[in-house]
Amino acid sequence: MTNQTPNFYALLIGINFYFPHRLPEGNYYKNLRGCVRDINNVETYLKDTFNLTPDQIIKLTATASENPNQPQEPPELLPTYENIVAKFKELTAKAQPQDRVYIHYSGHGGRAKTIYEDIKGFGTLDEALVPTDIGQPNSRYLRDLEFAKLLEGMVEKELVVTLVLDSCHSGGATREMETEDWSVRGGGFIDTTSRPTDSLVAPLQELAQNWQASTENSRNITVVNGLLPEPKGYTLIAACRDNELAIEKIFEGTERNGALTYFLLKALREYRGTEIPVKDLYDRISNLVHNDFPRQTPMLIGETNRTFLGGQSVSFTPGASLLRSVPVTRTTRTVPVMKVDVPKNRVQLQMGEASVLKKGAEFDIFRFGTWNFEDSEQRIATIKVVEVGASDCWAEVTGLHNEFTTRELTPKLIEGIIEIGSPAVYLSPGLKQIRKVRVILPDPLPQISGVNVEMLPDILKAKKEQVEGHRWIEFCSEAEKDEKVDYFVSLNSKGEYWILDANKEPIKNLLFPIKVDEPEATKKLIDRLIHVARYETILALDNEDAFASLNGKLKVELIKSVKREQVVLNADGNVPVLEVGERVVLRIHNESNRTLNISALILQADLSIVKSYPKGAPYEVVDRGQSRETRLDMVLPENYQEGVDVIKVFATVDATNFELLELPPLDQPRPGIGDKNPTTALGELLSAVVDEDNPQRNIRVVTDASEEWTTEKVEVVVKKM
Q1: Which of 504, 497, 505 is nearest to 483 (CA)?
Q2: How far is CA 57 from the centre of its chain?
Q3: Which of 75, 104, 183, 595 could form a disulfide with 178 if both were Cys (CB 3.0 to 4.6 A apart)?
Q4: pLDDT of 620-642, one tens digit each?
Q5: Which residues, 6 or more positions from 150, have their beta carbon under 8 angstroms from its beta carbon?
Q6: Cβ(53)–Cβ(8) under 8 Å?
Q7: pLDDT in tens, 251-306
Q8: Contacts of residue 84, Cβ cutoff 8 Å, sequence gap at least 6
């Protein structure tokens, strides 16, 4: 047991018992059986681990009793609307800036007709937590606007907040989905009961202002079971996605637990120490939950650059895994193990075709919780990808390390060697995108002081071999025809290098030439060629299967308001021209018959690639027939008067993370290129090039996984006027 943690408070809410009631159309919230057990187990963990005292834990529970009309707890300890709001405010008042606050809710999530039509619009719904007394006269839900305001109050006070919601909203569940062993934490209906419209949280004006401020950049897009806007200032783990179910079942003995809570506590107890990065914890529990319940995928949203429960900040670089500030920094992109198939000697990883993964890619697997991947003692196994899906893959074990090493020619897994959530580190991408380059010298040759111009082709070839990542490009032989060339390097009469495309036109956005006589000119040119090759690999990434059912089902529009009318700027393939500072709306519409996960990259004028949507989460869930919108402000990098931006939107059936494809601006150090510790996912993805005897020059993404993903892009010209 550790010493007491004085700056730590917890609010724990568990609801098994719902007072008998009937809502319109005979609907009602059924009693649950695992929520109070969840809360009691969480309380025990917090006391054992952090030695919390009773005044540091606020607990509201409703437990069924022998009397079907009355719970075991007294009224002041029941999770009613009034008590929940009061305890939120009490905790916020008690805690001081930088204190840690943990909130855990286990119970029903619900939907009701909105009482905020002036804010949300006519005919919309409120998502809510469902108090124990929801069926009593004048009872109220804790609605989304109120919940968001309560959390905002904690964030404004600079509390370090971690929130776990082991519930689902009613959209994905039905009342009939229940057995003796398991049930769903959602009502499966929309409550149309007329209820009080006043709030104990804050005046309506404050609720409205907070909600509008939280959703202004996402057009009322909400995440986390539709309950909350994009989390800002706190860390949230939710039991499932919007269209899924939060399950409770019997895991051990005879009593139920929520699946999320059960695996959360199991992972926390198995981990050595209390400071586990929330991303590592999520990788483990999300796969454990999803493996048992394919219709439940937990979500990690908000401030992911913390240890779980917020005791320690960690720095985070987009596209890379978490970096621990002390004592060790993690600088390597990792992929979690989803499943372990011992009989077939293989593991499943959470990475697939949509992240440019190919057969043959190799990974090292390390012990769960490993930070320092230079520590070979933590390495367990080496694996090679043999089967690729859209968002996952299967890899066979090709080597076992340290105490697991055997003398067998073919290494064999045994139970318990590799754990769910163990990090897998890229060794090779399993593909190689080689671009052919030809140097064009002018006639007559220019005279440049200190430079033997005639020898430049040989000088460049020699320099290429010294630059990391050089296998991305090859200089053509004299016998190869121009139609085999991807890039031409030209030298003008001013003694400047230019990079041209296959049509001998300047590469778009590459505006600034390199002077032949400037320091490190040849290395800088090689680095540019490598950077352009990688950039164009991602630009060209597409699902080329003509029979893929999702192709053509993702509609992407750029919209501008003109005299109060919405004008689609990219209609009929038009490439709009916009000024710096202009604001447009990116609208993404799911025209398929499946729920999709949406993510968008911007390939910018400076040849950088950044994930632009959604913020604070790896993807946004969009139901079939639904749309999402986000605002974009047109910008140009410094020194650019004009540039071309490409917005590339990806949609997958299963979750995937497109931060893997990020790339820094041109002429900036690329992770993996002259840097022993890559810090972007694209650097990790493509830094180690292997199998030089069998290079691949063109991306061909046509496999059995083509039914699982698609992508669309929009091009826009940005100018300074």
Answers
A1: 504
A2: 31
A3: 183
A4: 899 999 999 999 999 998 888 89
A5: 85, 88, 89, 92, 201
A6: no
A7: 888 888 999 999 999 989 887 666 788 888 898 898 889 888 888 888 888 888 78
A8: 13, 60, 129, 131, 142
